[in-house]
Design a protein that fits this description.
The protein has 502 residues and is of the alpha+beta class. Helices cover 30% and strands 25% of the residues.
Length: 502
């Protein structure tokens, strides 16, 4: 039994759990976060990877959510400019779908719902006279352009966990919460290490249940409580194909079923396409794209792009289960992306705060709201602080990534340009920790496929809780797209030797 205990035990290592752990640790609480797998292993690494206001949510009159998301978009762009950057989106007008006046009105609101305006506003585009129209079918002659942001979603999760740990939080990956019971004004929580099978108990004065798709299971099966809010599971899938078009613009494509599909430049040589919205009734574990979803996404592209694709063009796909707050919407695409925080525990009893819903863009505000709800149980809680504190590696002068990259590459001429860009993007100012003062490529140790080095692997194991090849190739980086089966096996052997030597 951990006699000292913790003030707050957070269950779930996705974006909401790590965001809450970071905020709480920075306010002076003793925090432990437990994740049964790897950080961002479930929903938080399966997003469309956008920091955006949610243009389509205006159609559902979610004005408060869009306003909050737009403000957070601008704020996060300043706080993590290495992993978040602007994208210009092209929205073709498709006859027979939403009329042009409706699109113009929506974009006007999108431009003006917040006073923060770091990104360019919307504009009309004559597609036949613009490079934006080059990849599209000739029938699409007019459209609009507007701005949002891209995010490396799983890295956003890891950086929140890293900052929480730097502020004193204990981050326990591959640690399952077996059960928890109230006792003497606190929780006694039984944990199990998934790797060793060893169990332990810890005392916590409050619990945050940010388990995503497992939030109801945690409440009922492990905490012995009834949920007062409902969860609705929706599966979203994406496909990745070889690059469909030139340019750094993304496309947002209307569909006859009133859904929208994104096509986004991805990892230099690819295009990311998604997402589907499919009601999901299975267990909230790993999921995979269906044949029907693949066909649907290909058909969406083929309605608008001049170059047709099919299932054989898919080089990778991923799927996740979104844990949305159930607002009784008939259609899975219409379910709110807003969040509900349910606090159970009267005065004098140990509370549990459960998180229902949410979206990656608003995770920081969700965390602030969570701490506001818990404040009566922690009278000495410090003030909100995350709105002005860069994430690890994000402390770039003037939030200017281009200037940082130029200096970083010039100071390390031994790095190939693509490698310098990748390291600067992934780690920002902490890239020097990855390089460990190297003065040449040989100083980085053994080199693996796609430019991965032993020095980077050591950093990811030491600083970012990476343990497996998947942790490294898909969640800490996206080098899995460029790594062969033989390369994966070689990396796994290296990791096994490193683990044995630890």
């Amino acid at each position: 039994m951990d006699q000292d205990g913790v003030d707050l035990l957070v269950i779930g290592g996705g974006i909401n759990g790590t965001g809450i752990a970071r905020d709480a640790a920075g306010r002076g609480l003793r925090v432990m976060l437990c994740e049964q797998g790897d950080l961002a292993q479930a929903t938080s690494s399966s997003s469309t990877k956008l920091i955006h206001g949610g243009l389509r949510y205006l159609e559902q009159y979610e004005f408060r959510l869009v306003r909050e998301a737009l403000a957070e978009r601008e704020r996060l762009l300043r706080l993590a400019p290495h992993i978040i950057w602007p994208l210009r989106f092209v929205l073709p007008h498709d006859e027979g779908l939403r009329p042009a006046w409706m699109l113009r009105l929506g974009l006007f609101l999108y431009d003006h719902l917040t006073q923060l305006r770091a990104l360019p506003g919307s504009a009309s585009v004559r597609l036949r006279e613009s490079d934006f129209g080059a990849p599209l079918q000739p029938r699409l002659t007019r459209g609009f352009a507007y701005s949002d942001c891209w995010v490396e979603d799983s890295r956003l999760v890891v950086l929140n966990a890293r900052d929480a740990a730097d502020r004193g939080a204990r981050i326990r990956t591959r640690t399952r919460v077996e059960d928890a019971r109230r006792a003497g004004g606190s929780w006694t929580v039984r944990l199990r290490d998934q790797a060793t099978g060893l169990g332990e108990s810890v005392r916590a004065w409050a619990i945050v249940n940010a388990a995503g798709p497992w939030v109801a299971d945690i409440l009922g099966a492990r905490l012995g409580l009834d949920a007062r809010a409902s969860l609705r599971l929706v599966k979203g899938s994406h496909i990745v194909v070889r690059r469909l078009y030139a340019g750094e613009q993304a496309y947002i494509l209307q569909q006859p079923d009133r859904r929208i599909i994104f096509a986004i430049p991805y990892e230099r040589d690819f295009t990311l396409i998604g997402t589907t919205d499919v009601a999901y009734a299975g267990a909230p574990g790993p999921v995979a794209i269906s044949t029907e979803e693949t066909d649907y996404l290909c058909a969406c592209i083929n309605r608008s792009f001049a170059r047709a694709i099919g299932p054989a063009d898919v080089v990778w796909s991923y799927s996740g289960v979104r844990p949305l707050y159930d607002d009784a919407a008939m259609n899975a695409s219409s379910v709110t992306r807003d969040y509900v925080l349910d606090l159970a525990g009267e005065a004098g009893t140990a509370p549990v705060l459960s998180v229902f819903g949410g979206k990656i863009t608003t995770y920081r505000r969700l965390a602030e709201h969570a701490l506001e709800k818990l404040k009566p149980h922690f009278p000495g809680l410090g003030p909100a602080w995350t709105g002005a504190a860069p994430l690890p590696g994000g402390d770039l002068a003037g939030a200017d990534f281009a200037t940082f990259l130029a200096r970083f590459a010039a100071d390390r001429p031994f790095l190939p340009p693509e490698m310098a860009l990748r390291l600067a993007r992934a780690y920002g100012t902490r890239a020097e920790r990855v390089l460990s003062g190297a003065h040449g490529l040989d100083d980085l140790g053994e080199t693996f496929e796609a430019g991965l080095t032993a020095a980077e692997i050591a950093y990811l194991r030491r600083e970012e809780w990476a343990r497996t090849a998947d942790d490294i190739l898909w969640r800490r980086t996206k080098l899995g797209l460029r790594t062969s089966a033989e390369g994966v096996a070689r990396l796994e052997r290296h990791l096994a030797r490193a683990e044995a030597a630890a």
